[in-house]
Structure formats: C-alpha cells, structure tokens
Amino acid sequence: MNLSPKLRYVASRLVTTILVLLCATVLLFALTLLIPGNPAEVLLGPRATPEAVQAYSHAMGLDRPLLERLAIFLGNVLRGDLGRDIISGRPILDLVLEVFPYTLSLTLAAIGLAVLLGVPLGCYAATHPGSLADQVGAVTSVAFIAMPNFVVAVFLVLIFSVWLHWLPVLGVGRDGGWGDAALRLVLPALSLALSWVGYIARLLRASLLEVMGEPHIRTARAYGVAERRLVYRNALKLAAIPTVAILGLGVGRLLGGAIFAEIVFARPGLGTLVYDAINLRNYPVVQAAVLVVVGVFTLTNLLTDLSYLWLDPRLGRRLGQER
Amino acid sequence: MTMLSRRQMLGGTAATAGLMATGLPFPVLAASHTSVTFAITRDIQGLLAPPYRVGAIEGNIMRTVCQGLIRFKPGSFDWDLWAAKTLTQVSDTAIEFELNPGLQFHGGYGEMTADDVKFSFELFQKNRPDGKPADYAKDWAALDHVEVTGKYTGRIVLKTPSPQLWLVVLPDNSGLIISKKAWEAGCYRSDQQPIKLIGTGAYMLAEWVPNQRVVLKANPDWKGDKPGFPELVLQPVRDPKTAELALRANELQFTLIEPADAAEVQKQPDTSLLRQDSINYVWIGLNVEKPPFDNPKVRQAIRLAIDTDQVLAGAYNGTVKPAYALMAPGLLGYWADAPKPKPDPAAAKKLLAEAGHPNGFKCTLTLMSKPTYQAIGQIVQAMLADVGVQVDLQVLDAGAYYAAGQGEAGKKLDMALQRFGGKADPAFQTQWFVASQIGTWNWQRWNDPEFDEFSAKAAATNDKAERNRLYIEAQKRMEASGAYIWLTHEANIFAFRPWLRPAVLPNGDDMLYDRFTAI
Asked: For the segment B198-216, what is each residue's pLDDT rounded down to a tens digit?
C-alpha cells in the first residue's frame, strides 16, 4: 500500500500508542498479582469461610491459568468492561465515567490557565530580555516551580476563601449551574497551574530568543517586518514546539496532581475515587482508574506528536525526503 | 491599603463578568439555619443496610434515617425507647418487644411491623446479594430467631445470653429496622442506582451524589420531636486541614479537627469547640511470635523505654489522657488499678542485655500514614534509640496498613501502632484479641486461653458484677503478656458554629445528626 509520508507518520504513532496501552494493561494486570494474599480473601474480607473463598475464586475465574486470566482481562477491557466494584457491586466503568469529567475539566482548566498566563509572560520576557520584569518573572517562576502544589493550595484557600471570602473551597457546586461550577474550579485549577506558568514562561522565553536569532527572522526584520508581527506570526509558532511537547507530558503530571487537588478541595474525580479505593483495598477500582489515567496520558501524547505536523512545516518536508 | 471588593475584582475581567451574569451563588457569609453542612471523612461506600455497612459514616446516616427499637441519649450510653413501646428481657435468652403503631416507612413502603423487625435482625445471618458475608454478622451471633407474636409484637430468641445486645447492638446501627418490602424491591443496595435508604426516622435520604454530598431532608410525616433543621448536608472532606479551612470560610458548620490544631482553631471568631474523651484505644503492639519479641524480657524492655506522657505531649499537644489498659474510664470492666509504669531506660537496657541483646537490635514499627501517628512513631523511634533499639518506621496508607497485619503478612510484623474504635460494651473491645483473631485483627498474635475464657464467660453472662470482674481479669492477662503498650483512649475535638448544639455519642465517633439543634 502506498501511503503518504504524513499518513505513515500518523499510522506509526497510532501503532506505538496501541502497544503502549497494551503493555500498560498487562503491567497493571501483573501488579494485581503482587497484592499480598488471595484476592478472593481480600475481596470477601476476614469473615469469609474457606468454602466462600473457594466459590468466589471459581466465580471470578481466579482458579484459571494465568495466561487465560490475562486474556479474559484484556478482552474485558477491550469491551469496556472494567469489572465490578467489590464494595458497591456497581460496574466500575460507571464509577469512572461519573467522576472522570470532573478530573478532565480540572486538568484542562489548569492547562488553560497555565497557557493563558505563561505564554504572554514568556513572550514579554523574550522581547524584553534583561529587563526588571524579565528578572522578576524569572525569580517568581522558579519560586512557583519549586513550591509544592499543596502549599500553594493552602495559601490560595487562606487568601481567597478564608480572608477575602471571594471564592469557595469545597466541591463542584450544588445547583448544577455552570457559573458556580466554574467559580469552584478557580482555586484548584490555579493551585495546579501556577508551577506550570513558570515552566511555560521560562521555556517559551528561551525558545523564542533562539528562534528570533534564526536567519529567516533576521531576513524578515531586514525587510522591515514589524517586530510584533515577527514575534506573534512567525517566531511563536516554531518556538511553541518544545512547549507543546512539555504540555503533552504535563497532562500526565497534571492528572497526577489533580489527585491532590481533588483531596484538598474535596472535589469528585479520579483522585478521590482512587484515594478511597486504596484505603478500602478496593483494588479493581484502583486498577481501572489507573488504566484510564494511562489511556488519557498516552492519547494526549499521541495528539501532541500529531500536532507537530501542523506546528512544524519542516517535519512534513523531512518526512517527504525520507520516502 | 485599599482592599478591592469582590465586585471590583470580578468586574476587572470579561470572563468573570460573564460568570456574574449567570447569577452566581457566592459563598454564604451569614449563617443560614435552614441547612447545616457537616464534614465526613469519606463518601458513602457499599450497601446502606445495617448488616452490610462499611463503617461509621454509613452507620451515622442510617441512624438518622432509620429507627431501632431503642436509641442512645446524646452524650450518654443510657438509652430511650424509640420504635418500641416496650422492650423487656424476659429471660436470659429472650427479649420481648412491642412496637409503637403508626411508624410509616418513607417512600410509601407502609407501616413498620414485627415482620420488619424479624427481617432486619435475621438478615445479619445472610450473605450479601453478591455472596460476601455480612461484615457485622457477629453482632447478632447470639440470635437464634425472632418470633412474630402479633402485628406489633415479637420475641427475640437467643442461643446464649448476650448482654452486649443492650449496648452495642439494639441501640446502635445493628439494631436498626429496615423495611422488608423495600429490601425486596431493591432498596438499600448500592448496585441499584440511585440507592434508596428507606426508614421511619426524622430524616429521609433525599439525595446522594457520589463523591459530592449526601442530603438528608426532614421527614414531613414524622410524628416525633421536630427535627432541628429542614436539611442536613454531609460533605466528604478527606483532608482535615481542608475541613478546618472550610469551617473558617463558613462552607461547613461542623467538623472533626486534629487535636494538634485545637489551640489555633479556638482563636478563630465565631467558632466553638467540643472536646470529648473517647473510648477508642491506641497502643503499640508487639508480635509475640516473632523474635526478639517472643522473649518477655524484650517486651518488658520496650515498655520501660517508652515514656507515654512524652509521646502524648508531642503527638497530641497534650489534648488526650494516657491509657493504662484496654477499657476506657466509665466502661464496665474499667480497671482503675491498672499498673502505671514509669519509664526507666536504664532498666530497659539491663533487660535487653539479659535477653541477649546488649547492643540492642533493629526492628520495624508499622503505622498508618496520619500526622498524629507519624509523630508518635518518630517519638517512639527516638526513645527506643536511647536504649539501643533501632526502629525503622514503615508508614503505610490505610489499605496497605491493614494488609500488612492480616493473613500471612501479619507474621512478619515486628511492632505495630494500632487504633481500634470502642463501643459501649466491653465485649466489643475484647473480641479482637482472642486466639481465633490471629491473622485477622489480633496482630500481636497473642494466644492466651485464659483471656479467651474470661472473655467468653463475660460475654455470656447477664451478671454485671461478674462481668466487671471477668473483664478486669482478662485485662490482667493482657498486662502480663507485655505485648501491649497502651497509649491513649483518644479524645475527639469538634469545631462548629456557636449557634449549633451538637449531639455526639460518648465514643466520640458516632453522630446523632437527627438530634443536632440550633441554639
């Protein structure tokens, strides 16, 4: 089959993504084997009789060969069957789907805030290198990068909720209105975003300074192209590539960070779901939630890879030369 | 400095101006007594039926929605009649009851009858719908059957005398009565969404949004005393610091706080504190099966090396009293004359040398990942280092911690910092330390036939004085083992709005939400 270079690039990334997901699923399955004790005993609790444990093991297929169990597990995952919660008896997929939108909205809000604040700061610092604002930005960025998220969160709550009474602390709102929900998203998203503002601003500044020194920019400047147009129309798209790569990885980091934010701000989400499940030894829920996070992380990285086709015209040319 | 108003701040950006246009409900700054929001440490888990409940969170909710034959008075272990008009122990193994007529189950499930009582109590002997045994089956282990003698009358027939029924079962969560008809219709089951908790109490479960809130609304058909508030909201807040901050921001009106934070919270305006001695018990347990703790001299040395008063001062900021035995003051079986050992590092070193460890040894202290417990661990670590014992702290989250002490894994434990919840009857406390609990909750793996015998006899006699004597004897056996270094019975400290009058049981863990009132 004669595929275009870009299509081959997309196909290779898709195959890699599928392999990563498959490996992660197998690894997760393997990790459940490391849980001390018989899973059936863990699930049924200390009062279970040996007969009950045996019957449950048989019903759950725990007495089958390992490879057969793995095949069943993979088949179930492919069908969207993540098993049943051992405490409530509900399908785990339902539990995950109930809370995942909250985690996703928090992660996206945090990235959005980080980009919204970090990109202008980075651009300003790059166009005014060595200025007082650049130096203050550098110190502030490093400070926020170094400060643990939960410390930032506590300070934000103290300032905006306890002292000023401007913003609420808990939950996602009760009236179902998007306004209330958005308001309750501000502090958790900001506590996650602040360290990323620093990352993005510093990375973009460095990239922009590098791109602004390249021959085609110098040529454009010599032809009298306005500096603002040079920065925002020509240089920024190229300078954004490392930032986009970092953001791709950042989604994973933020999903992990969202767990802490959900605990601190008492929000529903994958984080609180996993936290409660770990405390109650509800391993199937932990396994499923981690699988979802891995899936989102992997897909985000796929989208990041594919975005280079649009961001970097040189990639398309390089792929063409490789034919 | 000029302080920006919220309106000025919001007016500064188009986005937030857009939010304002939607008519945002900003945090309430004035107390509204139509609704009270309580912090709970986790969300509801599992079935909302008494035999299959997971823990105190579900129990507190069920006790607000359902009725038992009797119930505890706030702040005491005395009980009042509740759903029952009369409740009489007619023999060592029989209790007769008569229900108040006209108690209507919520949701149109009809009137409570003796059939519902029979169904509710006998359900404890049945497995969950998924085959899992009832977690609280032991509460009704003495039950033979319930005889229905009339529409509102019946007899609880026991296999053996069971005095603990009057303190840890009938007035507590395992004595709550659910509707047989509602159960058969699929209520109480978490796999049937939305879950329905059907009772006859002052409040109804109006809404449960998983991981967000539980809303209880006053039952309009309730014939008893008027509930304190039209609505109660239970908000899962897993982090105690968040709960404290949310209380200060007036998003919560009642929460448990960490003892170490009490002094700081007390300084806050418009905040009251309630300190309640608990009947729980915290101790350091030594695995008597595993060397070197199989040597009584080593156990004695460890005990002499630990200064309990210093541990409590450091970890609890002096907010709790020391414990010297299993039973807390005020309980039947409280051993007032229990030894109060003085720390003596020199004697501890001497004992270690006699036990063949002149240079000490290395071991691990397993504990749950909570700030207070970690502080205890670090202080104990330093104290034992003074006598040559090097302690590694194994700090685990709850799931891993419980797995570490049970089954085969429990054999590998050296020392564990443990905390169990207490109940009003001593039988509840002693049940975890018998030989049959080795591998389950008896993490010290201590096997003492005499202790088991004292516990069994005490649990099966209705003679109060004899029970008291037997439980003290049982605690003497624990003391002689040297496997238990008692630290405290804890105290719970609640922070709340001054206009709220709380109703908490003396164990400090159980709330009577339906008896909270406004002052």
From this structure: 999 999 999 998 888 999 9
